[in-house]
Amino acid sequence: MAVTDTRPQPSYQWIEHISATNFGIIALALIMPVLANDFILFQVFGWAFILGTIALSLQFLAGYGGMVSLLQMTVAGLAGYGVALFGDSGAALSLGWPWWLNIPVAIIVAGIFATLVGALAVRTEGIYTIMITLAIASAFFYFARQNYPIFNGYTGFNLVIPPQLFGVDWRQPVPFYYLTLGAATLSFICVLYVSRSPFGLALQGVRDNPRRMAALGFNVTMHRIYAYTFASFFASIGGILLVWQNAQVSPGTVGLPNVFDILVIAVVGGLRHPIGPFIGALIYCVLRAFAPDILLAFGLSGERFKMLIGLGFLAIVFWSPDGVLGLWDRWKARRSANADPLTGKARGGSA
Amino acid sequence: MTMTDTAADRLGSASSGNALELRGVTKLFGALAALTDINLTVRPGERRAVLGSNGAGKTTLFNCVTGDFLPTNGSIRLFGEDVTSFPPQERIRRGLRRTYQISLLFGGLSVIDNVYLACRGVSRGRFSMLRPRRNDTLMARAAELIEAVHMTPLKDTMVRNLAYGQQRQLEIALALSGAPRLILFDEPAAGLSPTERSELIAILMGLPGHIGYIIIEHDMDVALRVATSVSMMHNGRIFKEGSPEEIENDPEVQELYLGGGHG
Ligand SMILES: Nc1ncnc2c1ncn2[C@@H]1O[C@H](COP(=O)(O)OP(=O)(O)OP(=O)(O)O)[C@@H](O)[C@H]1O
Ligand SMILES: [Mg+2]
After folding, report:
1. B138 and A19 in contact (C-beta within 8 Å)?
2. Which of A190, A222, A269, B249 is most buried, judging by how many CB atoms fall within 10 Å of its CB?
């Protein structure tokens, strides 16, 4: 309990104060292409920013709204299908609309879908929200696999690539790194900003006490539904980037393993703050990239990396229900407990 | 009931301009009748105490007025408007407020955010995604309300870390937000220290004259000081109404209510 006390209260500034540590992280992110090779830029960081953005939409719903939705990967996949269907792809089905039309339409379609499912899901609480969104996610997977007129069935769409805007090939590692970094950063700032707006505050009120919110004049149901709509925007952005990264979208994109991975990423990182999903995604992508090699070095099958992730998930949930963010808070609390209240510096052992 | 009856009813209550009017309100929980045929009229600005033993149905009465529960039977009028089937937020937006017997607050938010939400709930821009500016009027209003309940030093404290008495005070600040016309206080003094109790009485007596309230209070001394009229409840019924003096001197009341510990 004491852990939460030490957190400085968020203020009503335009955006939170940027500390020296945060400044260092930003600088590091910007010069990363000089430090890292193409594989790391594209497969680790690019992918982590994408998965983090999708998981961010879950963090918004679960962390601020108390609604654990397993729908976010499905919304992301639907937006990805959208750009494939409305834009260009290797499939004859694609309509070939220009990027400035197919991207917004894909996001709007995914937003309408999320709103409708949200309207169903908000009538349930806790485990039932998880079940209903899981049921819809899995139904969507089977539907996409069997439907040929829209989703092109089992094969899906290949050759779905980003538009050659400003003459840049955005799928090259360095441009793709900056593209995903930019999208992730903007999404992060947007969620952080809205969390202190009337809409975001009221959502947190709904999370803490829906009955009291109604007794203050709020329409709790509408607030929850709008939260699904708002969150779908970030899921869609992530979904479109994901499809561009893989240059394809198929039923596997919205399969249940991916649906659960988003939940694991958000929970491991921490649901309390929008930075959590990005921490979780980075851990996940680093493990995915290097765990097979490490396992092989120990003479184990490289296929076992999922087990490693599962164990990590177990450990985090066991030690810190607040994810990595919770561990960080505890560490900071311990440090400030050791600090001299006057100077703020660490106390000597004798003092 | 004929058509003319209901029309006359509607006209009657509109012209009488009562703050609250309950007609034949009954609430059943399964076989248990928590409220039976309650008729209650509260004029604008009236301050009424509701007294009654544990389980008399006082909180249930509040829940029916705010819309937390729908009554099994009967009608509820708020400022002349039939609100019987309105959801809670619609009644709140018409000037009704309440506090809860067991504090219902937002533990994960700070004191100022709690009050800010209460101010926001009855104004426009509930869905606004723009952060309040430095000179935001609702934020300033929230700070005033916190000052009114003497909690300014605790403005940025997370509510789940407040002491019990402070949470009760914050309940009052939430109920005062916006432009209340009728407030329902559910045992606001329960568990308060004598100092906090007299502070509460001062806050209630200091409310502007146009704000009426109904207060549920076990402590007869508090109730009779802050109220101008009293309703006595027992077993889901109102069995006596009158001025504080009448109630205090009523032999039936003395036997039923005061006979116990207050004698
Ligand atoms: N949600 C509910 N479901 C079932 N029964 C309820 C419910 N709420 C209240 N009751 C019952 O209705 C009766 C009246 O309860 P109520 O809470 O209104 O009493 P009260 O006068 O406020 O009592 P107290 O002084 O203890 O607060 C009690 O018998 C109670 O058990
Ligand atoms: Mg009660």
Report:
1. no
2. A269
